[in-house]
Amino acid sequence: MNKLNSTQLIIENNIALIKICREKQLNALNQAVLDELSLVLNDVQINSSVKAVIITGQGEKSFVAGADIKEFQNFSKEEGRLLAQNGQHNVFDKIENFSKPVIAAINGYALGGGLELALSCHIRVASENAKLGFPECSLGLIPGYGGTQRLGQIVGKGFAFEMILTGKMIDVNRAQNIGLVNQISQLESLIEDAKKIAKSCIKNSPKALSAAIKCINKSFYTDGYELEIKEFSELFENDEFKEGVLAFLEKRRPNF
Ligand code: DAK
Q1: Looking at the predicted structure, is the pLDDT value of residue 217 above 90?
Q2: What is the CA radius of gyration of the chain?
Q3: Which pLDDT score, from 0 to 100, does residue 42 have?
Q4: Which of 135, 213, 220, 238 has the greatest number of CB atoms lying within 10 Å of its CB?
Q5: What's the pTM?
């Protein structure tokens, strides 16, 4: 595999730890991170010594604070559509359909695209300082990497409406109460706790794990993902999107 710049991969005791490494930008997902994640996932998928995967963010503040707002502000409708489609296919769907268990170790903010990344994992463990939310509507957008579909599948329609329509962040206790995270850990023991869950999974038959993942996913497949890509890309040509992003960059409230 090529040299990694924005991610890190450590394989130990049959567990692959993938870390997103843009700590100064709170690990915001830019194209380079998404491209590397896709390559690392391919590598880990065919590596027979790997039996489970953990995804986390660098540092103590953030898992992933969303897609990189500075990068996506100038995308056109067509770029938005293509990026949503490619991103869903190359990273988010790939994780959801991975044949080995994938655990998100949420070490702080999981916002927007970051929460979508966590939602595409099979199991979520979050540190006590974690904050989770979908601020997209405040930017004139909707979640574009499957969040409108997966959130409701995990927490139910009522909480999904609340989180996406208000855009408010929630803390880990609320996240656990609504089923958004499976377990809360102290920040210092987050990765160890994620590894314990991984170990519990990988003592089981790899073929059975792969079949279980396939079957559970099958029961939740909808064609809403295509609708999300369409609606998401249309919002890119909207004045409200331009105002939402400008307001973020100017550190003020948007005026819709
Ligand atoms: N993008 C780019 N830079 C970000 C960022 C982001 N999402 N989040 C944080 N940063 C940067 C900040 O700009 C700041 O950079 P400097 O000013 O130091 O250069 C640095 O990280 C530290 O952040 P703060 O100074 O803001 O730190 P605070 O502790 O004060 O606040 C915060 C932490 C997480 C509350 C705040 O940073 C924040 O609100 N961040 C933005 C959260 C957000 O709105 N995320 C985006 C959600 S929308 C797409 C598909 C999907 C999406 C987009 C496109 N396509 C298919 C094209 C998804 C969209 C989203 O995720």
Answers
A1: yes
A2: 17
A3: 97
A4: 135
A5: 0.97
- What sign does the CA torsion over 43, 185, 152, 33 have? negative
For domain 2-190, the CATH class is: alpha beta
Residues 6+ apart with CB under 8 A from 233: 77, 78, 80, 81, 84, 144
| Contact by Cβ (8 Å): 101, 213 | yes
Ligand 1 centre to CA of 28 (Å) is: 6
109 within ligand 1 shell (Cβ under 6 A): yes
Q: Are strands 109-111 and 102-106 parallel, antiparallel or unpaired?
A: unpaired
Rounded CA gap, 100 and 170, in Å? 29
89 lines ligand 1 (CB under 6 A): no
Closest CA to 85 of 222, 190, 194, 231: 231
Given this model, what pLDDT does residue 84 score? 79
**Cα-to-centroid distance, 12 and ligand 1 (Å):** 31
CA distance 130 to 96: 22
Q: Is 116 in the active site?
A: yes
Q: What is the mean pLDDT of the chain?
A: 95
Which residue is catalytic, options 78, 136, 192, 240? Answer: 136
